[in-house]
Amino acid sequence: MKKYIGLMGVLLILMSLIFSPIANAANLDPSKLTMAEIERERNSHPSINEKQKALLKAYGVTEDKIKSITRREISDILLFGHIVNPEYIQPYLVSKKEVMDGFKKTEFIRNEQALRFEQNGLTLSDLALISNNYTLEEIAKMPISTIKETIKKSKSSIYLDPVSSRFRIQSRFRIQTITPNLYTRFNKEDINASESGSYVYLHKDSMDTEYSSIATSNHITEVSGYVQNAYTIGKHLFAGPSQGITLSNDQYAYNLFGELTESSSGNIVHEGVDYRRYEGAPVWSLAEGVINNKASELGGTTVAVYNPFYDVTVIYMHLKNVSLSNGEYVSKDTSFAQQGLYQSGSISNSHVHVEVRNGRQTSGNPGSGETLSSTRPYGILLWLMWD
């Protein structure tokens, strides 16, 4: 009898393995799964932790729906939905106080360096020029002689473009198009809209500047949410699961998703989030997946990581020393590259661009008419980070 019961137990276990969804799909190498297995996972209900549950509730998903929601439904909600109940995820984000402390720390160091530059015969324009490629903390540690030599080399490469009648820089340095204390315009319904569209102002510095007086309280609340999300993701990007570092404003992000910059051909929408720590800083994976493309472009390396369970691609741009190759699996919380350089024409600096695109992609969005919501890519990145 005992032998019979034992055999029945073994059979039940085998049947459960055969007919149940793949266990712990997030810990499996998707490159070794069949399309049928991946499709089954997309239509299955995943194990959802407290952070993820809070994130879904922030997007308006009910408790009952969470009990049966599939991965496919989750990705659609996080990619194209809007946060309607931000209070649910506040406990899991970097606090507004920490963000504001980062801003204040940055402002203090900037003022300190401005005084130092003035005392040594340098100007605020010199500080702006060199701070495009070095964080203020790095500048504070540089000898004045090194700073002057760096500025001299960069200024010697400035020339007048006869076509545009604008000054351009043939070096690693430029003055940012988007500078602190300025708003950029953003249309949440269609980020490729023309100047005549209905815009709201979007810029991280709107949380703590003299210009905040012209913004509405709803705008400040909305933008502060983007900043908290970006800050939370940035700490993970540069510190992995430990997140044991404190990042100043200059170090965590200087272009948010949806910001606009002006060019000779019109407004350009920023399709990802730019993070900057320092050139050579270790970069950690935010999500698991398969390296769908590793390519050299714009002065660095682009890596596209495809996650088949949620059918999204996380794209990292301007990396260097990437340790993985095409087709390889990268698990979450893996240090797989370093912050590298971005170079385009006369523009050159060091940062990491992080972007999310729906489906299997090989490169960043070319800006060819994709209309994205203001909350993308924060929601899906937080979900994959917390998976």
How is this structure best described in words?
The chain is of the alpha+beta class and 387 residues long. Among the domains are: 41-92, no CATH class; 227-386, Glucose Permease (Domain IIA) (Distorted Sandwich). The protein has 12 helices and 16 strands. The chain has helices spanning 2-19, 35-42, 50-58, 63-66, 71-80, 96-119, 124-130, 136-141, 144-155, 217-239, 249-252, 378-386; strands at 158-161, 166-169, 184-186, 200-202, 260-263, 266-269, 273-275, 282-284, 289-297, 300-307, 312-320, 329-330, 335-339, 342-344, 347-349, 352-358. Strands 7, 8, 9, 10, 11, 12, 13 and 16 form an 8-stranded antiparallel β-sheet that branches. Strands 1-2 form a two-stranded antiparallel ribbon. A two-stranded antiparallel ribbon has the order 3-4. Strand 14 (342-344) and strand 15 (347-349) form a beta hairpin. Helix 10 packs parallel to helix 12. The chain starts with a helix and ends with a helix.
